[in-house]
């Protein structure tokens, strides 16, 4: 019995590439289908419903498929998610709702200063990797407070860890839930206050049955959607404007043009430049520092 | 590899791990904070082909690239230390 589950789980790991490949194909096909429906003249609202139900269905299927009652499966996905897929899941965390709803706005509003978020997020992964990563598994801990309690002994260290975690995740979750609410209300046409709870129910359904196992596998599915959704528009824009389909290379050009445009606006008397930390309403905060 | 539970082995493993950690923390501090203190003078330098002001570039892409490379390097180096001292996980 034990060997049977072990072999079936290694089959599962082996087939991951095939599974997610098929999923990506399905996703692209679904987008093409939506585009065709839109050309035929199906109203946007129905397209929105279709999109939400498709994604929810995928996550629900993954959630149900990966449901588990084992502790180590629930908390750490059995510690056998391949590194590449774990990276995809973590990447999806990096660019989840808080990023794609919040980040674009912060960068638009704050310019260069907004990049502090990008740096903090990415630099944080380095810190976690250096200070916690190598030891969490060796200690066999499920969570960071568990590890702190093993390492330093007693519950005081654990308590401090919990406080830090709650502070961090509260800020993060606030942004995430807000993003979920905005998205759900936009696509489902509900009021924001109700849409927040609709989104929460969806998250709960996905996460509760399978814990970390379900979250990791749905995050990988989400990563594929996100990476396509991020890259498609920016590649099209970059190709149209500069003729190079690699937006990373044309980024600098865009910054220079925005800066020139800002200076033109100031020169024409259309905007008042603001260089302080807190800008009064109606003033222009430059995109890049001088 | 041999004497995994000897005291000397344990201490050497830990001192190597500590040194690796401090090195990476130093690089992290430099690219996470210090280089961004000098954004205004660095912006005077324009990267040739990209047309990117260097100070802005470091925050927008440069530091992030360094961070990602660091993540890969750290994982590899720590794995090597663990393997040399017999603390690696079999896979």
Structural commentary:
The complex is a heterodimer of chains A (290) and B (91). With 290 residues, chain A is mainly α. Chain A is 79% helix and 1% strand. Chain A has a two-stranded parallel sheet. In chain A, helix 3 packs across helix 11 (192-242) and helix 6 (97-110) packs across helix 10 (155-188). Chain A is globular, with a radius of gyration of 23 Å. Chain A starts with a helix and ends in a 6-residue tail after the last strand. Chain B has a two-stranded antiparallel sheet with strand order 1-2. In chain B, helix 1 (7-37) runs antiparallel to helix 3. The interface between A and B is medium-sized, with 27 and 34 residues.
User: Would you identify the regions of chain A where 5 or more consecutive residues have pLDDT less than 50?
Assistant: 1-7
How many beta-strand runs of chain A?
2
- Percent helix of chain A, as a range, is over 70%
End-to-end Cα distance of chain B: 16 Å
Which oligomeric form is depicted?
heterodimer
Task: Please provide the count of β strands of chain B.
Answer: 2
Helix content of chain B: over 70%
**N-end to C-end Cα span of chain A:** 67 Å
Topology:
The complex is a heterodimer of chains A (290) and B (91).
Chain A: H1 2-14, H2 16-40, H3 44-65, H4 71-76, H5 83-94, H6 97-110, H7 115-131, H8 133-136, H9 144-152, H10 155-188, H11 192-242, H12 247-267, E1 272-273, E2 283-284
Chain B: H1 7-37, H2 39-43, E1 46-47, E2 52-53, H3 54-84
Antiparallel strand pairs in B: 1-2
Helix pairs in contact in B: 1-3
A few lines on this structure:
Chain A is mostly helical and 290 residues long. Chain A contains twelve helices and two strands, in the order H-H-H-H-H-H-H-H-H-H-H-H-E-E.
